[in-house]
Amino acid sequence: KPGSSVVPAQFAGVAYEKVLLADGFAFAAGVSDGTLFISTQESALQGALERVASKKNSLMNQERFGAMVARMEHGDGLFAYLDVARMRQQMPAAWLEKGGDRILRVLGLDGVEALAASSHIENGVFVDRVDLAVSKDQGNGLVQMALSRKPSKLRSVEAFPDQADFLYVASFADPDQLYRDLKVMMEKELPKDQYDKGMAAIAAMPRG
Question: What single string gives the DSSP state of each residue in 61-102?
Fold first, then answer.
């Protein structure tokens, strides 16, 4: 772009480059420990480089995060982390009072401390992993229901027509128990009119 320039710089022993446009700073980029760092704020890039070099003020110093990274570690791919406990603390009180706390309980997020997820290719197959740090109180929402389910096998695969181009199958172990769990949770969390509507919708779902 006319008027743009690339300026070399260095911080924490690592060389990086700043891209400047005619109207000001655009972004900075540098490589440290085999990782490419890009940021639209030079101070943020410098902070990342400093943490890699010094190991201070790093999320890796938190025992929970370090353990989750170790369990999810793999080669090239994507990695995401969410501190659910901190997220709950930062939620507006007004939102929680207007029903947000109920949403958290129904989802089961009141019993989750953190979440890590990764996606990568393993032996030619896309593999997605999710690791949950669950508190001792655990909660009774959808997350806990999913964790309590036993693995189920894909059944009745012969039913798929040989001309099918796309299939999407949801398989649940012990659907009757799932139905009972949903019923108990909804009865506890929903006003009666919403509960009646929810139960009517669940009753219409196949459970065989």
Answer: GSHHHHHHHHHH--SSEEEEEE-HHHHHHTS-HHHIIIIIHH
User: Is 80 exposed, middle or buried, given 0-12, 13-18 or 19+ CB atoms closer than 10 A?
Assistant: exposed
Mean pLDDT across 140-156: 77
pTM above 0.85, yes or no: no
Measured between alpha carbons, how far is 31 from 183 in angstroms, rounded to an integer? 53
> What angle do helix axes 175-189 and 192-203 make, rounded to 10 degrees?
170
Q: How far is the C-alpha of 17 from the C-alpha of 27, rounded, in Å? A: 9
- Residue-wise pLDDT for 47-57, tens only, equals 999 998 888 99
**Distance between CA atoms of residues 11 and 32, nearest Å:** 11
Distance in angstroms (rounded) separating the CA atoms of residues 119 and 75: 10
Instruction: Give the E-state strand segments of the chain in sequence order.
Output: 5-11, 14-21, 24-32, 35-39, 77-82, 112-122, 125-134
- How far apart CA 136 and CA 117 sit, in angstroms, is 21
pLDDT in tens, 102-147: 888 888 888 899 999 989 888 888 888 888 888 876 677 888 877 7
Sorting pLDDT into bands at 50, 70 and 90, what band is 45? very high
H/E element, 42 = helix 42-54
CB-CB contact of 44 with 38 (8 Å): no
